[in-house]
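Q: Predict the assembly, please.
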Amino acid sequence: MRDREHLTPNQRAWLRFRRNRGATLALALLALLIALILLWPIFSSPALARFLPQAITYNPDAISDTQFAAPDRAHWFGTDVHGRDLLSRVFYGARISLLVGTVGAAVSLIIGVLWGAIAGYCGGRWDSVMMRFVDVLYSMPTVVFVIVLVTALNAVLGKLQIGPHALSADSVRMWQFIGLFAGLGAVSWLTMARIVRGQVLSLRHAAFIDASRVLGASHTRIVLRHILPNVWGVVIVYLTLTIPAIVLYESFLSYLGLGIQPPQASLGSLIASGAEQINPVRIYWWLIVFPGAALALTLLALNFVGDGLRDAWDPRSERG
Amino acid sequence: MYFLRRILFLAPLLLLISFLAFGLVHLMPGGPFDRERIPASPEIERHLLAKYHLDEPFLKQYLRYLGGILHGDFGPSMKYRNHSVTEIIAEGLPVSLSLGALAFCFAMGTGIPLGFFTSVHKGEWEDYAGSFAALLVICVPGLVIGPILVMFFAVQLHWFPVALWGSPWRAILPTLTLGLYFTGRVARLMHEGMLSTLHSEFITTARAKGLSESAILIKHALRIAILPVLSFSGPMLADLLTGSFIVENLFQLPGIGVFMVNSSLNADYTMVSGLVLLYAALLLGLNLLVDFAHSILDPRVRHA
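A: Predicted assembly structure:
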């Protein structure tokens, strides 16, 4: 190993991360999970399906007569109310959940970083007005916000579906996705804004910022080239912790019927439709346990990685 | 002095929030009467709009609403006709309050010991097992753990009733469903609080004085280490007390968490504004209390 003194802070943080066995394991698990989720549709292609066990080659939307089959050799995770193979549905659901989580987190990242950076850099009156606004939003229930945003967008979409310039069903679905991303991102940026603002505030009067200002750099340049690069570490750490939060939020929305619309499924909507099937006569435990376990596993891996990154980047955690 | 100013600040803040909540729901396309079972004739709809003053300009509606609040009247619900918002909240709030309080006690009662225990055993297997358990309950949301608890303990084993509210026995599964997530959050905050406190200088001093380890941990460290949990308990309690849609929906409880979701879905203007105001008032009031308790527990804050 090279001498520690010659490493950049990021390299040193990476080394610390690597030494955290739990976090490294979680990162490997997450990579495996993402690879599986992305590769899953390939398994059902006719060219490959012949060489694979039948249980992993089902189409998630294929309806069959074997309804509510308990997990067995043919269907590892059992089947649902329409006889669809649950294993394939879980993989497709996880794919959509992760997609929503990542894009939603990216939206919250953009809003939060811009808001926090502008507030912190401008300082003074702007800072207090912008941050009071964040305080006010904090004290309102997010549930109401998300619902209002998503239903408002759905209503606009409903209007667009009728009339001479009607959108096609595909583009409506795409806009529904975008509305979901925007809605989830728009309620999750508050903490990010606070964190970034705090960081920027402490950097604002650093000597190297004064130096570039004296050299005639514009405000935009100072923020983009000098301040934000120093904030990225903290931002990325918090971003990995935002993704699980948004995945969780999406599952809540799907539970309400506002999230992903059938026949598409997310982990949340799978769990919700499993919960609908609870009755005193027969127990279809696999409808909840498998999607729930997939959700928990994904969230655990994301949280472990996020924690590991935070410990690695946070200078206070350097104790030995 | 500082707290006096904070209290005085509450009123304008709540005013602003009431305006935002009222405006937010008005931004939604469609009104509260769009989803009636039978579409109303234009004549009836005009009458309805006039009855609830929805045909007036926005600002006038808001001022009328505000005037009502000052007299303790949160207006009529537009979806649940013949009921005022005050009535609905008065009916549902006791259920949500008691369930929330139970879940709060459960989360504190299990989370604090768990976090304390894992931090004392730092680096040993107890730490890893306990910390993993804390993270696990955070990652298994209520909409997963709730149905599983119902299926296993109520439907399969018949230990508990499946749903409804009324006796302490019925409260156990909802409390677990609601509280487990917060157990994890509290345990993690407690764990981190203890670790950072045990590194501070006054603990070294206490050790140097030759105090017993248990006296150091409980009398000195715990008092400071619990502060992050205390800060979190404000928003947490506000969340818990205003009800949870998932738990109330799953166990068919007559709380206000269901109303919070349904009235936003139905564009029930007065209902949403009333509930948002209730939540905000609870949150702001609790945060004030928390900061006050903070200044009592931590002398460093008091003298700053």
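The two ends of chain A are 17 Å apart (CA to CA). Chain A touches chain B through 44 residues (CB under 8 Å).
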